[in-house]
TrEMBL record:
It comes from the Bacteria. Residues 1-31 form the signal peptide. Gene3D superfamilies: endopeptidase domain like (from Nostoc punctiforme). Pfam families: CHAP. The lineage of its organism: Bacteria, Bacillati, Actinomycetota, Actinomycetes, Streptosporangiales. Residues 116-200 form the Peptidase C51 domain. This is CHAP domain-containing protein. InterPro entries: CHAP_dom.
């Protein structure tokens, strides 16, 4: 089990859903659990018309392949958070991004809250940004919102494809609201498991994992170059 700190802002409630802004640092709450389950749920989640969550992936074309995205993500394996649950380049980038301003307006809190927040979705978003595939991969710190973006663009399904964005629920729930974690699919092993690259694992690192498909809610399909 990895230790982490939940820092809380008044507009958030603690709940085990990965990728939302962490509860504000003023309360200084301490907790110990699997890093894959540390994500407060925002009290209010709205997909505003100005929010990128409503934009289609067709609005910006990229010349990036799934193979290139996975190769870049693989280079991050071993990157780890610090004792406070922060310190990764993914959190630091997200806190300074335009998207952080948008999600703060949507969910409450502040940019600084992302510096020690659960970062699985931030990792996926960062890989998209750095490879030039962000318009296809999407970006958010809240896994449920990220999945809804794929769903709204008719790019969400149940087939594991290399480079797809995989959304997990540890209790096997299949609704978008059940999502707790996110990563990239490396391959379908065709034995009831998939190989993945994920940030913010139970060890607080970027790791390659083998996951049972029974824990998968669904897959987002970036519109990669062929």
């Amino acid at each position: 089990m990895a230790k982490f700190r939940l820092t809380a802002a008044p507009k958030f409630v603690a709940h085990a859903v990965l990728g939302a802004a962490v509860l504000g640092s003023a309360l200084g709450l301490q907790a110990t659990a699997d890093a894959e389950t540390k994500q407060p749920v925002p009290i209010a989640h709205k997909l505003a018309h100005t929010d990128e969550s409503t934009k289609t992936t067709d609005e910006a074309k990229v010349n990036v392949t799934a193979k290139q995205v996975l190769a870049f993500a693989k280079k991050q394996i071993g990157t780890s958070e610090n004792a406070a649950g922060g310190g990764t380049p993914y959190q630091q980038w997200y806190a300074q991004s335009q998207r952080a301003a948008e999600t703060v307006a949507r969910d409450g809190g502040s940019r600084a809250d992302y510096l020690n927040a659960a970062w699985c979705a931030m990792f996926v978003s960062w890989v998209g940004e750095k490879t030039g595939a962000r318009p296809q991969v999407g970006w958010d710190a809240y896994t449920v919102a990220h999945a809804k973006w794929f769903k709204a663009n008719d790019r969400f399904g149940t087939e594991a494809k290399p480079g797809s964005v995989v959304f997990f629920s540890w209790n096997g729930g299949k609704a978008l609201k059940d999502i707790q974690h996110v990563g990239f699919v490396v391959k379908d092993n065709h034995n009831g498991t998939i190989s993945t690259i994920e940030g913010n694992t139970g060890n607080g690192e970027v790791e390659q994992r083998t996951r049972p498909t029974s824990q998968v809610v669904g897959y987002g399909y970036p519109q990669y170059a062929s």
